[in-house]
């Protein structure tokens, strides 16, 4: 699926103006070694009319904060430096506590907002009292839609179907072989209710946060956004996907340098998510099968990355 064109400034070529917006959302950006991408992200946030950008840094060592403060001396930019890497969920909570805004946009540092994206997200969020959070259309740099921006919950059954390629049969048996990613489906013409959106771009009402609670800090990286979406829905808040709010996302830019570390926390997060919301739905033997399957998948993925690293190191040694 290709993302629709939307007015968007070229990364690195933003003109920061003192725009007084009636929308007044704060934007919380959790940074960890995002490099120049952080500058592009914050620049796009102000170009889109955000009231304030709160950058929560998880002890970066790449000079990204120094680059940001050198390029963007904006009075509405706040930087919070954590003494250690708290993880994504905990850092989001640090930013949320530092904000008094009635709306907070959680945005990944490797993302760039289209100039009209924030307006559109706010319009949809405020269109109904029952809407608690909204997410935009996540696009790759080439304009194609990314997975994850709109999805259903990856239940153990759905995850099993996807892991073994059985979700490809969904076109013939949608009730049994359904996937949990919806990006291959036709892009809706209007905002739609979905089960889950991505934490890479998530605009949330303060009222809903006060009702549901902050992010679950038991997750370090990955699946915390699914958890929050589940909690919002359990409390009766709608989660919406907004197809005409475009966000260019350099997927994995901040995590590809440590793939095994990331995969460990991804699989650990999935087990926590399953245990928290689905454990009661599965009898004991089947639940242990789920745990074994997730653990085995991590071993396979970690082995793959280890072999790749060893081969790359050997090639460098030969040169």
From TrEMBL:
Top-level taxon of origin: Bacteria
Pfam families reported for this sequence: Glycos_transf_2
Transmembrane segments: 286-307
Keywords in alphabetical order: Cell inner membrane, Cell membrane, Membrane, Transferase, Transmembrane, Transmembrane helix
Glycosyltransferase 2-like domain location: 27-209
Record has Amino-acid biosynthesis as a keyword: no
GO MF: transferase activity
Keyword match Transferase: yes
Gene3D superfamilies named in the record: Spore Coat Polysaccharide Biosynthesis Protein SpsA, Chain A
InterPro entries xref list: Glyco_trans_2-like, Nucleotide-diphossugar_trans
Record protein name field: Glycosyltransferase
Annotated source species: Pseudomonas helleri
Top-level taxonomy: Bacteria, Pseudomonadati, Pseudomonadota, Gammaproteobacteria, Pseudomonadales
């Amino acid at each position: 699926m290709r993302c629709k064109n939307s007015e968007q400034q070229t990364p690195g070529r933003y003109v920061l103006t003192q725009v007084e917006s009636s929308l007044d959302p704060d934007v919380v950006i959790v940074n960890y070694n995002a490099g120049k991408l952080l500058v592009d992200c914050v620049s796009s946030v102000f170009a889109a009319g955000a009231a304030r950008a709160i950058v929560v840094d998880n002890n970066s060592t790449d000079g990204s904060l120094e680059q940001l403060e050198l390029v963007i001396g904006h009075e509405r930019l706040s930087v919070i430096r954590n003494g250690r890497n708290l993880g994504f969920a905990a850092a989001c909570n640090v930013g949320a506590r530092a904000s008094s805004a009635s709306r907070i946009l959680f945005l990944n540092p490797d993302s760039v907002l289209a100039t009209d994206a924030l307006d559109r997200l706010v319009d949809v969020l405020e269109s109904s009292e029952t809407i608690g959070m909204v997410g935009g259309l996540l696009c790759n740099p080439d304009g194609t839609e990314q997975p994850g921006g709109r999805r259903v919950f990856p239940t153990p059954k759905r995850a099993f179907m996807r892991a073994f390629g059985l979700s490809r049969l969904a076109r013939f048996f949608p009730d049994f072989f359904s996937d949990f990613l919806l990006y291959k489906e036709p892009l809706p013409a209007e905002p739609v209710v979905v089960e889950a959106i991505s934490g890479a771009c998530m605009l949330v009402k303060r009222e809903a946060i006060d009702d549901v609670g902050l992010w679950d800090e038991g997750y370090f990286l990955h699946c915390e956004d699914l958890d929050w979406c589940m909690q919002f829905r359990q409390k009766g808040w709608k989660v919406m996907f907004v197809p005409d709010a475009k966000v260019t996302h350099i997927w994995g830019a901040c995590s590809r340098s440590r793939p095994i570390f990331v995969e460990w926390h991804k699989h650990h997060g999935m087990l926590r998510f399953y245990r928290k919301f689905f454990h009661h739905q599965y009898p004991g033997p089947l639940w242990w099968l789920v745990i074994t399957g997730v653990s085995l998948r991590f071993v396979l993925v970690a082995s793959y990355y280890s072999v790749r690293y060893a081969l790359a190191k050997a090639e460098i040694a030969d040169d």
